[in-house]
Amino acid sequence: MSDSNKVVVCDACLQASCWQGEFMCEKSRDAGTIEKTRAELAKLGLEHPHYWVNPRYWDKKKPKVADMAKSKLAIQDDRMLIDPAFGTDKPYPSHAAQYREYHGRCAWLYNPWTGKDRHPSDIGSDPTGLAICK
Ligand SMILES: [Zn+2]
């Protein structure tokens, strides 16, 4: 379907890097995609041409979703502000993976990055908060 001379770009900012999830513009959430030729994009000069490779690959892979999943997991490396089991300040250890190791099978009742209560069904399916994203 898509011509290999064409590049899929975000229809709001006309940048492939946005559609690929690299640098998402403000409107990217509601934006769709359109195809532009490399010549058209070069004329616009909005981004480095290295984003214009493999349009087919990006077409199929829906990288925005992949990128979102990546950024969700990234929080697990942030320092925790609240103790996930007791809801108190200054958790020890303050790194999620280290906390799990240190406290073993202790259920995480609080989201340690926001301090909010976790939903009981989330606790049931993910007792130690491996899937917490924010
Ligand atoms: Zn955009």
Description:
This protein is mostly helical. The protein folds into two domains: 59 residues, no CATH class; 71 residues, no CATH class. It is built from six helices and two strands. Strands 1-2 form a two-stranded antiparallel sheet. The model has no long low-confidence stretch (mean pLDDT 84). The site of zinc ion has 9 residues, from loops.
Which terms would index this structure?
134 residues, binds zinc ion, elongated, 6 helices, 2 domains, mainly alpha, 33% helix, two-stranded antiparallel ribbon, 2 strands, 7% strand
SSE blueprint:
Elements (H helix, E strand, L loop, with lengths): L5 E5 L5 H4 L13 E5 H7 L10 H7 L1 H12 L21 H8 L16 H6 L9
Antiparallel strand pairs: 1-2
The protein binds zinc ion.
N/C terminus separation: 38 Å
Given the C-alpha coordinates, what overall shape results? elongated
What's the number of extended β-strand segments? 2
Count of domain modules: 2
Mean pLDDT equals 84
Helix coverage percent:
25-40%
Number of helices: 6
As laid out across the biggest beta sheet, the strand order is 1-2
Major sheet size, sense and barrel closure = 2 strands, antiparallel
Summarize the structure.
The protein is built from six helices and two strands, in the order E-H-E-H-H-H-H-H. The chain has helices at residues 16-19, 38-44, 55-61, 63-74, 96-103, 120-125; strands at residues 6-10, 33-37. Zinc ion binds next to loops.
